[in-house]
Amino acid sequence: MELSDEALCQRVGAQRDEDAFEQLVERHQRRAYRVAWSILCDADEAEDLSQEAFLRLFERASSFDGRSRFSTWFHRILVNLCLDHRRRRQSWLRRWLAPEAGAPRDDVLERQPAPPEDDPPARVARKQLMAKAWQALDRLSPQQRAALVLQVEEDLSAKEIAGVLECSEATVRVHLHRGVSMLRKVLAEG
Predict the structure, then answer these.
(1) pLDDT digits 0-9 by tens, 116-155
(2) Burial track 92-115 (b if 16+ CB lie within 10 A, e otherwise)
(3) How far apart, in Å, do the first and last CA atoms of the chain sit?
(4) Amino acid 190: pLDDT
(5) Full set of structural domains in the chain with CATH
(6) What does the pLDDT look like over 95-109, one tens digit per residue?
(7) Percent of the chain having pLDDT more than 70?
(8) With contact defined as beta carbons under 8 Å apart, do 24 and 58 qualify?
C-alpha cells in the first residue's frame, strides 16, 4: 500500500526516515522545479531553489501538522524561497546581466519544444509570441506571478494559493485579476 504524502512527511519528521523523504522527492521533484522555474525563469536558480526547498522539507518536516495538504505546505516553502530570492536579487545586477530591454529571451525560448510542423514562419511567429509573453510575465509582481503559476501550472484553488502565499483568498483573487489583466494588456499591445 502506497503511503500518502502527509504520512510520508510525518515519517520524515518523526523518524528522519530517508526512504520516506526519497519518495517525497521523487513524487514532487519535477513539479517543484517547474514551479520554481516559472517564478524565476532561470534553470540553474530553479534547480538550486527546488533542491533547497527539499532540504528545508527534511529539516522542518516535524513542523508539518496536517492542517493543510502536504502539497500546500511544501509549495509555501518553495514559493517563499523563490520570492525571497527574487527580492534579494539586486535590480542593477539583473539589468546588467539581462539582454537589452525588449530583446527576446532566447535562452528561455530555445528550451521550448519546436512546433510539430517544420514551418519556418510558424516557428518565427511562435518565438515572437513567446518573447512577448515572457516580457509580459516580467512586468508582474512576484506575488502576481506566483499566484498565476500556482493556479495555471499546479491547478491550485484560490484557497490553496492563499495558504501557500500566506494571504487572504481575496488578496489571491486580486493578484490573479491584476496579473491576468496585465498579461492581456501587454499581449494586446503591438
Answers:
(1) 455 677 777 777 777 777 777 778 888 888 898 888 878 8
(2) eeeeeeeeeeeeebeebbeeeeee
(3) 55
(4) 56
(5) 1-98 (1.10.1740.10)
(6) 444 444 444 444 433
(7) 83
(8) no
Helix (H), strand (E) at residue 115 = none
- Output DSSP code: residue 69: -
- DSSP one-letter string for 60-129: HGGG--SSS-HHHHHHHHHHHHHHHHHHHS-HHHHHHHSPSTT---HHHHTTSPPPSS--HHHHHHHHHH
Q: Is 117 exposed, middle or buried (0-12, 13-18, 19+ CB in 10 A)?
A: exposed
173, 156 Cβ separation under 8 angstroms: no
DSSP state of 141: -
Eight-state DSSP code of residue 4 = P
Amino acid of residue 14: A
What one-character DSSP code corresponds to residue 33? H
Q: Which amino acid is at 57?
A: L
- The helix/strand count (H/E) of the chain reads as 10, 0
> Whose grid coordinates read 516580457?
135
Instruction: Judge contact between 154 and 122, C-beta under 8 A.
Output: no
Kindly state the greatest CA–CA separation across the chain: 57
**In angstroms, rounded to a whole number, what is the distance separating the alpha carbons of residues 146 and 26?**
23
Alpha carbon separation from 13 to 16, 38, 43 (Å, rounded): 6, 29, 30
